[in-house]
Amino acid sequence: MTTAVSLTTIDDCWNRIGFRGDRSCPELERVVHCHNCQVFGNAGRHFLDAPSPPGYAAEWTRRLAAPIEADPADLVGVLTFRLGEEWLALEVRLLVEVTTPRPVHRIPRRGGILAGVVNIRGELHLCVHLDALLGVRRDVPQAGAPRRHQPRLLVVRRENERWVLPVDEVDEVHRFSRQGLTGTPATLSRSLARLTRGVFSHDERSIGLLDEERLFETLRARTR
User: Fold this and answer.
1) Which of 6, 104, 112, 130 has the highest count of CB atoms within 10 angstroms of its CB?
2) What are the residue boundaries of the structural domains of the chain, listed by start?
3) pTM
4) Torsion-angle region of residue 88: left (phi > 0), alpha (psi -120 to 50) or beta?
């Protein structure tokens, strides 16, 4: 079983003799910045491998693995989630897992929608700013104010591609009829409208169903 790592077991040399310290580390001349050093990377991996809260993985495993009863062919299962004030959805078959937020390691000299890489169960995956891609403003936490909902990371996959998408809130898996899908309203941003297949209603919400083909194609193009 994986156990949490105490701060006292990690030598934070980057704060003492590294880039944030007195800069006396002999490795700095070679690696330029502590972010490029193997010691810093190994320390980050310890934090990234910390276990999820008790019962969290089991709960989402139960939700996502629950058998779907026989339904008409036009029903589709989707996971709904929120970015800022926009409710969106992706088909469940694209979803690998929903997990808690964790540190994202920035990639030197790369920016734009690419946030960096994040460790998911021992594997590094590219993490992107979905809000920037869709032209949606995410929640901005106020200092000292309690959060109503916990942000999450969605790990999605299509063929051989995997991406990590930070979102503000995750709802549940829902099913809706494809016949209930309507056109995108004019109030959506141009970027969001271009990557949305249509809109459906659930629990008095208008939810935009993302177009997986255009979404993954755009992610590839914008992160090259």
Assistant:
1) 130
2) 7-48, 56-222
3) 0.65
4) beta
According to DSSP, the β-strands at 123-128 and 114-120 are: antiparallel
Question: Do residues 210 and 197 lie in contact, with contact meaning Cβ atoms separated by under 8 Å?
Answer: yes
Topology annotation, domain 56-222: OB fold (Dihydrolipoamide Acetyltransferase, E2P) (2.40.50)
Give me the helices (H) in 12-162, please.
13-16, 28-31, 38-48, 56-65, 130-134
Bridge-based pairing state of the strands 205-210 and 169-177: unpaired
Pair 190, 196: CB distance under 8 Å: no
Following CA atoms 84, 89, 93, 96 in sequence, which dihedral angle do they give, to the nearest 10 degrees? 10
| Tens-place pLDDT, residues 105-115 | 998 877 789 99
Tens digits of residue pLDDT in 178-207:
777 888 776 677 888 889 998 988 888 889
Neighbours of 35 (CB within 10 A): 16
- Note the helical H segments in the chain: 13-16, 28-31, 38-48, 56-65, 130-134, 190-194, 212-222
CA distance 107 to 175: 38
